[in-house]
Amino acid sequence: MEFTFKRNAQITAVLLLIAAITQAIYTALYASGADVPRQLLWGAESILFTLLAAFAGAALVQTRRHQLAWAAITAAAVLNVVQVGVGLTMFGPFFEAAANVEGVTPAARAVVAFSFMVYNAAKVLLALGLLVIGLEIIGAGSVLLGRASASTGVVALVSNSASMAAGRDVFGDLPLAGASGVLATVLLAVCLLILNRDSA
Hints:
This protein is mostly helical. The protein has helices spanning 5-32, 38-62, 67-100, 105-139, 143-166, 176-195. Keywords: Membrane, Transmembrane, Transmembrane helix.
């Protein structure tokens, strides 16, 4: 099987869609107060983002256009591996220690804050990728989708940048950064599928 640019772009788009779905499932379960199967979801995401880094990276070196978008997607995938890895390997031990050892709680909170900063950084990169691809989609004739994508990209980029710089509570209880980031991921996947459906 030959992994052409078109195939790598399509696989990247599918992986982005799956990532958005897993993040939406996690958020819905967490918000409802249900028991979240973190090991299952984050374990799946760790594999997902590792593959995403490989396929997006392959597309990056193959593409003749949109290098900035593909570089952003590749870097976002790598950051997401780090973020998920922190959650899988460090949350449990730190919070277990915080429950038993006085004074460890600030360290546990710092680990969570670091994880969210990496998460927001990855969303900034995906938003940047969406903005670049969205502008291209407008030029290709899909004006409505392109404008919606570019606008969502700007909102996700600004809100996640603010969360990185000022902390994840910068918008209070409004989940603007996370929601816009997930929507940006979905739209990026759709745009990639549309933009590359006729490419070689």
